Amino acid sequence: xxxxxxxxxxxxxxxxxxxxxxxxxxxxxxxxxxxxxxxxxxxxxxxxxxxxxxxxxxxxxxxxxxxxxxxxxxxxxxxxxxxxxxxxxxxxxxxxxxxxxxxxxxxxxxxxxxxxxxxxxxxxxxxxxxxxxxxxxxxxxxxxxxxxxxxxxxxxxxxxxxxxxxxxxxxxxxxxxxxxxxxxxxxxxxxxxxxxxxxxxxxxxxxxxxxxxxxxxxxxxxxxxxxxxxxxxxxxxxxxxxxxxxxxxxxxxxxxxxxxxxxxxxxxxxxxxxxxxxxxxxxxxxxxxxxxxxxxxxxxxxxxxxxxxxxxxxxxxxxxxxxxxxxxxxxxxxxxxxxxxxxxxxxxxxxxxxxxxxxxxxxxxxxxxxxxxxxxxxxxxxxxxxxxxxxxxx
Length: 394
Known about the structure:
The chain is of the alpha/beta class. Helices cover 43% and strands 16% of the residues.
């Protein structure tokens, strides 16, 4: 079975970590040959390209595959990808992310690839953006959807969203949770030395957030409730892990709000270091307005941390309200404040949520389970394809 994965760029992010884990694990399956195409990795989010760059025969850079809309480069990418796919003759193409998902699927059809699969890691359309961009992305998804044989979703919320938009049929969707290496997270511990390095005291109550410092990520919700909440809980500190275009703005705004002594910006942290930072957190918040299934939530639960999340997209499938954490409606600052204080004051509640979450994540989020489910899906879809190729390992 020859498989080509295509993603826009390999920045530090959940979709990229998922894709890299997938291609590296699939290569170890008997009879599976995997190739990965990606565009240049640019931006302050960091790069994961080194994980695949030196693996023999795995990675090919497509210089014209860029994230912003660029008609000339997009046409060039379509031509380059279709030519490469015609030469490689894969049994299936599996695309990820918005731009690569659109151009990659069209190129696969032009190259007459027997099976085209797309993973929806997060929505490309929705109320989080303006009317015109939303219409453009929705039109693009509907167009690409017509040349897609099957969709993999990281949360059932994505399936509902796309079906409601008239994209595909219910039987074209399969949910596969985005697995990760559980071991380092299960071993996470409260490192007092790391706390000290971050300006956090041993007895501080640390509210952690792992996300790009950018719009729609919910940092301003914490800024809004910050002055009130630290009055009621003076030992509460915010720890932001991640970087992005809004870092300077957020640092300034938190300082102007009198919260400079209550916030620590850790900056960009390599993915392998994330468990250490989770270890020093007492609760993890995720308030993004746009996310498929936030990777930070199962990672936090694996590390034994309760979660508090915005009820958006697939968050409710991991942050189960009253069981593994608390859900709040987007923009409901009063509820956010009261739930956060409830967690800060109630150690037994935190421990119960964390234990429930750790058990769920161990059942559902291992890399082995993700790859088993994806590999079986490939085999089934190829076998069902009329007149299509049969995998060599069947």
